[in-house]
Amino acid sequence: MSSTSGTIADTKRILVFSTDAISDPGIDLAGSAHMHYPTGVRVLPVPCSSGIKPDWILYALQSGFDGVFIAACGGDCPHLSDCSARTGAIVRRAQELLKEAGISPKRVKMSGICSVCAEAFVAHMENFQKELASLEA
Asked: Cα dist. 92→9, 19, 34, 110 in Å?
């Protein structure tokens, strides 16, 4: 565990929606390179980030996750040319649902993570961990 992520008891639970072809290899690279990121991170592979449902994000947060991170396909999506725009609309709709449920929309983040973006993924997880901790302070 990274020294910047605090103790296990302080670790925030983050659900990561990761795309099979684009972000999963980058996240796997972080693990195989023994890079440390918060222990509360759980990765759920999906075919395309534009297929995530806003209700899934709300459900994850209502079920005990502290945050949801979407490792989006970005411009490299093998399925849709407008994947980034579609995924952005999903995040905006999810944030509206969160507001309606009295949950901070800051609990959802999205960023493109490429197949070699291991360091970027680790940095996103550490920063998101800190942001989530500050929401509860």
From this structure: 31, 19, 34, 10
pLDDT of residue 42: 95
Domains of the chain by residue range: 10-135
Residue ranges for the chain with pLDDT beneath 50: 1-5, 8
Question: How is domain 10-135 classified at the CATH fold level?
Answer: Rossmann fold (3.40.50)
Whether 11 contacts 132, CB under 8 Å: no
Burial zone of 97 (CB within 10 Å; 0-12 exposed, 13-18 middle, 19+ buried): middle
Q: What is the pTM of this model?
A: 0.86
- Buried b / exposed e over 98-137, threshold 16 CB at 10 Å, is beeeebeeebbbbbbbbbebbebbbebbbebbeebeeeee
